[in-house]
């Protein structure tokens, strides 16, 4: 299959802009948060996007953020299940922690979602860096970084073994004999490792796409090593084309070295403001900026060991309040430093960090399409995760005005080629290990 651009959208309401709830058009909107989430998924599907994506930090964030937050932190898996009933083709990618969830539960929930959605589920496997998340699970401190990846490795091994419990043709449904399953095609995981002992089998049939798609976002040495070997698709975030291109070359090189024939898809974050002209986009940007809450953002950054709370917003960025580049937040810190160096004031820095997971473009549909094409054709990305400031509004501007340009240029699909997330992403279904061994 020829190479194809992939577009996913963040599904969190009311959007990626902290303080989006203050915008008059949001504050006076009578839709419930659930309805706004549903509308966002529908816009994503009408725009033929590959998937909608839900991140998850397993905590409510630093206390300094609480006064400014909306309690819309829906749990990703249940949200995706609800959205599956109002969409037909759109992929649904949910974050699940290898650190705090038992592999059996993860395997069961994700394969259930995959079956219930006709093969549209993806798992964003995270190792959960936040101390505040650890505090919610009764663990005494965050497990050391590289140990988290060792555990992630074993979690994924167990989950995949459980997903292989039933071979494709295990179901025979012989009503006459009362035999539903051919037990020679049902397998226990019988896993005994450093962190887990799991017997299995998992009583769920193979999904229409074989198995859920694995997404990963590691950026440290251990993280990229893990992603290069295991991920079907890789989330990442870079403030400049050059950094993204370097990352893309490195991670696909690592995947090749690991012997992978089907290379992972790399999708950096793209934060955008689209208007009919560059001038209009700038006006919309000014309007959005009025809702921004710098105090929220300063408090939020404490989570990645940057503590600039209490410093004058119109003064310089206090760079000595940034942790030295730790493995813990490797790429994030590098990205924030880059932003800090180009910001005249702390206020400007804080505003620009709302798109820290990615590149930011403010402009006409053509300008945004040009950037996408440049990154895609010049080796920096296979696609993007769209982080609209306000959803569904800004996402809809994108699907209505940028997507048609990408289609005209032959970069993006004009219709879905299949019904599963794997078919959108062009990723083959993995063979069941027992079937393959026959
Ligand atoms: C687009 C994107 C989305 C992410 N979503 C989550 C998330 O939902 N939950 C989470 O705990 N971490 C999330 N992360 C953080 C990564 O899982 C990872 O911890 C981070 O990139 C640092 O990499 P490292 O763990 O290899 O140091 C995300 C990262 C990116 C770039």
TrEMBL record:
<dbReference type="GO" id="GO:0004497">
    <property type="term" value="F:monooxygenase activity"/>
</dbReference>
<feature type="binding site">
    <location>
        <position position="220"/>
    </location>
    <ligand>
        <name>FMN</name>
    </ligand>
</feature>
<feature type="binding site">
    <location>
        <position position="145"/>
    </location>
    <ligand>
        <name>FMN</name>
    </ligand>
</feature>
<feature type="domain" description="Luciferase-like">
    <location>
        <begin position="34"/>
        <end position="380"/>
    </location>
</feature>
<protein>
    <submittedName>
        <fullName>FMN-dependent oxidoreductase (Nitrilotriacetate monooxygenase family)</fullName>
    </submittedName>
</protein>
<feature type="binding site">
    <location>
        <position position="219"/>
    </location>
    <ligand>
        <name>FMN</name>
    </ligand>
</feature>
<keyword id="KW-0285">Flavoprotein</keyword>
<comment type="similarity">
    <text>Belongs to the NtaA/SnaA/DszA monooxygenase family.</text>
</comment>
<dbReference type="InterPro" id="IPR051260">
    <property type="entry name" value="Diverse_substr_monoxygenases"/>
</dbReference>
<dbReference type="Pfam" id="PF00296">
    <property type="entry name" value="Bac_luciferase"/>
</dbReference>
<keyword id="KW-0288">FMN</keyword>
<dbReference type="InterPro" id="IPR016215">
    <property type="entry name" value="NTA_MOA"/>
</dbReference>
<dbReference type="GO" id="GO:0016705">
    <property type="term" value="F:oxidoreductase activity, acting on paired donors, with incorporation or reduction of molecular oxygen"/>
</dbReference>
<dbReference type="InterPro" id="IPR036661">
    <property type="entry name" value="Luciferase-like_sf"/>
</dbReference>
<keyword id="KW-0503">Monooxygenase</keyword>
<keyword id="KW-0560">Oxidoreductase</keyword>
<dbReference type="InterPro" id="IPR011251">
    <property type="entry name" value="Luciferase-like_dom"/>
</dbReference>
<feature type="binding site">
    <location>
        <position position="149"/>
    </location>
    <ligand>
        <name>FMN</name>
    </ligand>
</feature>
<feature type="binding site">
    <location>
        <position position="95"/>
    </location>
    <ligand>
        <name>FMN</name>
    </ligand>
</feature>
<feature type="binding site">
    <location>
        <position position="56"/>
    </location>
    <ligand>
        <name>FMN</name>
    </ligand>
</feature>
């Amino acid at each position: 299959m020829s190479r194809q651009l992939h577009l996913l959208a963040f599904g969190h309401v009311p959007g990626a802009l902290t303080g989006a709830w203050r915008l008059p058009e949001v504050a006076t909107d009578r839709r419930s948060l659930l309805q706004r989430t549903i509308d966002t998924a529908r816009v994503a599907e009408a725009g033929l996007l590959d998937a909608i994506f839900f991140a998850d930090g397993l905590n409510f964030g630093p206390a300094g953020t609480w006064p400014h937050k909306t309690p819309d932190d829906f749990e990703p898996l249940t949200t995706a299940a609800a959205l599956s009933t109002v969409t037909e083709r759109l992929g649904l990618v949910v974050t699940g922690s290898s650190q705090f969830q038992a592999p059996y539960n993860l395997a069961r929930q994700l394969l259930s979602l995959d079956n219930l959605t006709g093969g549209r589920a993806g798992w964003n496997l995270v190792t959960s860096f936040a101390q505040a998340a650890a505090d919610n699970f009764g663990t005494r401190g965050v497990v050391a970084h590289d140990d988290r990846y060792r555990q992630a490795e074993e979690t994924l091994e167990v989950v995949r073994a459980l997903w292989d419990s039933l071979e494709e043709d295990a179901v025979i449904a012989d009503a006459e004999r009362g035999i539903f399953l051919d037990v020679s095609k049902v397998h226990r995981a019988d896993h005994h490792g450093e962190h887990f002992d799991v017997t299995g089998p998992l009583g769920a049939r193979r999904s229409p796409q074989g198995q859920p798609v694995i997404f990963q976002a590691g950026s440290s040495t251990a993280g990229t090593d893990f992603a290069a070997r295991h991920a079907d698709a890789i989330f990442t975030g870079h403030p400049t084309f050059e950094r993204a291109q370097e990352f893309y070359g490195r991670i696909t090189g690592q995947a090749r070295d690991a012997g992978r024939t089907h290379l992972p898809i790399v999708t950096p974050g793209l934060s955008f403001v689209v208007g009919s002209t560059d001038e209009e986009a700038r006006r919309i940007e000014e309007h959005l900026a009025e809702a921004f809450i710098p105090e929220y953002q300063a408090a939020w950054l404490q989570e990645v060991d940057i503590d600039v709370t209490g410093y004058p917003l119109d003064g310089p960025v206090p760079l000595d309040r940034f942790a030295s580049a730790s493995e813990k937040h490797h790429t994030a810190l590098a990205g924030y430093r880059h932003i800090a160096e180009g910001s005249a004031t702390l206020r400007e820095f804080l505003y620009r960090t709302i798109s820290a997971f990615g590149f930011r473009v403010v402009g006409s549909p053509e300008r945004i399409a040009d950037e996408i094409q440049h990154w895609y054709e010049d080796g920096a990305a296979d696609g993007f995760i769209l982080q609209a400031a306000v959803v569904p509004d800004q996402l809809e501007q994108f699907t209505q005005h940028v997507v048609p340009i990408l289609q005209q240029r032959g970069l993006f699909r004009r219709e879905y080629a299949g019904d599963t997330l794997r078919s959108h992403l062009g990723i083959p279904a993995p063979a069941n290990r027992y079937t393959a061994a026959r």
